[in-house]
């Protein structure tokens, strides 16, 4: 067993029953019947649940100040940015939430899906190669996939945890340095280069790039979670748990 497999194995537990929703997302490309509890529950409780709660809190504040027609999930992201400036005293946390909401221009679906993924344990409704039904219709490819939403929220969360950097005035310090997606090409010439790389959009597939080396978790439902684990394991091993 390789070192990578040993590290992943400790995060895998006994087989658990899938929910009807998650069962639909399985396919012949998903040979792993085990459920990865560690990273998905951490993502749900640490990021998705907090984002969903903050959305509810700000929407209540909007109603309180007479802006009930401008709730998050109803208006565009550009309108929210204007609100964050014009109502900064009444809505002090809106500006901090906006980067998380930039995952999709379809704010109604995004907010709906974030709330769904935040409910229950271990993101039981997560569909690695799709998303949730919306307004009585099945998920379609023009909507962001669950994997895309969760990865965007993770990157936004890590952006918010790193100190400002003059090279990245937009505040996307982690994203700019440690996340990349096709068709962009990584900079393999840097010896300390390490990033999460989305090599495919449909179906989503993630790898971890370390200089000129590639760590490629097997495809399927757990691919994104395993890539995240491998990335943080490398940061812990080589960077003493420090990013920046």
UniProtKB/TrEMBL annotation:
This is Transmembrane protein 209. Residues 18-37 are annotated as: Disordered. One of its GO terms (cellular component) is membrane. It comes from the Eukaryota. Coiled coil: none annotated.
């Amino acid at each position: 067993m390789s070192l990578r497999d040993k590290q992943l194995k400790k995060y895998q537990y006994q087989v658990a029953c899938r929910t009807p929703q998650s069962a639909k997302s399985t396919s012949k490309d998903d040979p792993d019947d085990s459920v990865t509890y560690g990273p998905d529950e951490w993502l749900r409780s640490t990021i998705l649940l907090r984002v969903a709660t903050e959305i509810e809190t700000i929407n209540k504040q909007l109603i309180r100040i007479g802006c009930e027609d401008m709730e998050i999930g109803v208006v565009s992201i550009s309108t929210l940015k204007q609100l964050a400036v014009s109502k900064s005293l009444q809505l002090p946390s809106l500006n901090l939430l906006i980067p998380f909401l930039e995952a999709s221009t379809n704010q109604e679906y995004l907010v709906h899906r974030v709330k769904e993924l935040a409910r229950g344990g271990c993101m039981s409704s997560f569909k690695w190669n799709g998303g949730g039904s919306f307004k009585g219709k099945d998920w379609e490819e023009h909507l962001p996939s669950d994997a895309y939403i969760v990865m965007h929220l993770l990157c936004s969360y890590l952006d918010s945890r790193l100190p400002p950097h003059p090279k990245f005035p937009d505040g996307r310090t982690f994203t700019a340095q440690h996340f990349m997606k096709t068709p962009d090409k990584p900079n393999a010439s840097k010896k300390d280069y390490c990033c999460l790389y989305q090599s495919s959009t449909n179906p989503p597939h993630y790898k971890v790039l370390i200089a000129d080396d590639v760590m490629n978790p097997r495809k399927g439902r757990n691919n994104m979670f395993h890539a995240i684990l491998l990335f943080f394991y490398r940061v812990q091993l080589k960077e003493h748990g420090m990013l920046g």
